[in-house]
Design a protein that fits this description.
6 helices; five-stranded mixed β-sheet
C-alpha cells in the first residue's frame, strides 16, 4: 500500500519519476509572489503480479482513494517479465485502473510489450503486442478512473505513439513517455534471440522501431518543454518506466547497476 510517511514535496523545476509507491506534493510560490495551489498525486507501478499482490489490490485502491490524491500514475509493468502476454492481461489492467475514484494515467512498461518475445512470455512478436497495447489502452482521449483527466496524445488514438501523453494540472506540466526497460527495445547481437522466439528479421524490426520511437520521444519532450514555457508552468514532471542506465545489452545474468561504465570526460 501507499506509505503515507513517504510524502515528498517536489520543487518541480524538473522532476523525473521512475516508479515508486509514493505520494507527491506539487505547487510552490510563483515568481509573481502569489501562492500557487498545492495538490497531491500518487505514483505506483511494477505491481499486482501474484495472487498475494492481487489480494492486496482492494486495500491499495482504498488507500489511494482515501489519500484524496488529485490523480495517480501507474508507471508501467502490468504483468511480470516471465508471464504470458495474453490479451486478457491488458483488459484486467484497464479494469484495475477504472476502480480508482480519481484519474489514473498509465505509462507503458517493458513487461507488457518489449519482453513479450521471450519464450516464457509466449513468444509473441514485440511490435504486434505494442500495436495491441495501443489499440486497447490508448483509445480514449481521457485517463482511466471513475473521474478522468483529458490527455493530449502524441499520436492518433489507438495508433502509433498514442501512448505518449501530457497533461497540465495546477501549474505543472506532466509528460508520460514510452521509454521502457529492456534497453528501450534496442537489441544487440546474439542476445536478441536468447530465450526468445525472435527471428533475425524481428531483431532488425525491433531496432528500427527503437530508432523511430526514440526520435518521436525526443520531439514530444522538446515540444512539452516549449509548451511549459509558453504557458508559464512552474515545472515539468517526466514519467517513464526505464531506469535511465538501461540494460545494455539486454541480459538476464548481469546486474547493470553494479557495472562501472565509461563516461565522457
Amino acid at each position: 500500500m501507499i506509505d503515507r510517511a513517504r510524502r515528498i514535496s517536489v520543487p518541480l523545476s524538473l522532476a523525473v519519476a521512475l516508479g515508486a509507491g509514493v505520494l507527491l506534493h506539487a505547487g510552490q510560490m510563483g515568481n509573481d509572489g502569489r501562492n500557487k495551489p498545492r495538490f497531491t498525486f500518487a505514483i505506483w507501478g511494477d505491481a499486482m503480479y501474484t495472487a498475494v499482490d492481487l489480494g492486496r489490490l482492494a486495500a491499495l485502491t482504498a488507500d489511494i482513494n482515501a489519500s484524496k490524491a488529485a490523480f495517480s500514475i501507474y508507471d508501467g509493468d502490468i504483468k511480470s517479465g516471465s508471464t504470458k502476454c495474453t490479451d486478457d492481461v491488458y483488459a484486467a489492467a484497464v479494469e484495475r485502473f477504472n476502480a480508482f475514484e480519481a484519474p489514473v494515467i498509465y505509462v507503458a512498461g517493458d513487461n507488457e510489450w518489449t519482453d513479450c518475445h521471450r519464450t516464457n512470455n509466449g513468444g509473441y512478436n514485440n511490435l504486434e503486442r505494442l500495436r495491441f497495447l495501443r489499440s486497447t489502452m490508448f483509445i480514449s482521449p481521457n485517463s482511466f478512473g471513475q473521474h478522468t483527466l483529458p490527455l493530449e496524445h502524441q499520436g492518433a488514438l489507438g495508433e502509433i505513439y498514442s501512448e505518449n501523453t501530457r497533461w497540465t494540472y495546477g501549474d505543472v506540466l506532466f509528460v508520460g513517455l514510452n521509454v521502457p526497460g529492456s534497453n528501450n527495445n534496442r537489441v544487440n547481437g546474439p542476445d536478441c534471440k536468447n530465450k526468445s522466439a525472435r527471428s533475425d528479421q524481428d531483431c532488425a524490426d525491433d531496432n528500427d522501431e527503437y530508432r523511430a520511437r526514440d526520435a518521436a520521444n525526443i520531439e514530444f519532450l522538446k515540444g512539452s518543454f516549449a509548451m511549459a514555457k509558453a504557458q508559464g508552468s512552474l515545472g515539468v514532471a517526466i514519467i517513464m518506466q526505464a531506469d535511465p542506465s538501461f540494460d545494455m545489452p539486454e541480459t538476464e545474468d548481469v546486474n547493470e547497476r553494479t557495472c562501472v561504465r565509461l563516461t565522457a570526460g
